[in-house]
Amino acid sequence: MSGNHVEKNRLSKLLEKLPPNYSVGTIYLNGQPVPVTQFSNLDSDDLGYFIADGQVVVLDSHKIDGISFAPAEEEEEEEEEEAQ
After folding, report:
1. So what's the pLDDT on residue 72?
2. CB 3.0–4.6 Å: which of 30, 56, 65, 68 could bond 26 by disulfide?
3. Is 67 exposed, middle or buried (0-12, 13-18, 19+ CB in 10 A)?
4. What is the pLDDT of residue 6?
5. Which pLDDT does position 3 carry in this prediction?
6. Residue 66: in which H helix or E strand, if any?
7. From CA 36, how far away is CA 17, in angstroms rounded?
8. For 49, phi and psi rounded to 5 degrees?
């Protein structure tokens, strides 16, 4: 990285390739889960726009360290089953 240029991480590059309204379950932002339902777009400043409960969620794509494409509800059910 030099100057104000921030190199895109691999997940930012992946988001660039996703079409609008692509189904997504959970975004992991600095290790914390952020439940979403859809990816909307990635702007020229690498801000990722997602939909969650009918609201727009804007995240810095450079801080995203994981993406789950399974619906969030299914993930929670799987975690509960594993705990039993």
Report:
1. 60
2. 68
3. middle
4. 55
5. 42
6. strand 64-68
7. 18
8. -105, 125
pTM above threshold 0.70: yes
Residues shown for the chain: 84
Low-confidence ranges of the chain (pLDDT < 50): 1-5
Residue 63, classed as helix, strand or coil, is helix
* CA dist., res. 37 & res. 81, Å (int): 22
Q: Dig out the tokens for 4 from the structure.
A: 């104000």
Specify the amino acid at residue 73: E
Q: 10 Å Cβ neighbour count for 64?
A: 21
Give residue-wise pLDDT tens across range 58-70. Answer: 999 999 999 999 7
Joined together, the tokens standing for residue 15 give 């988001």
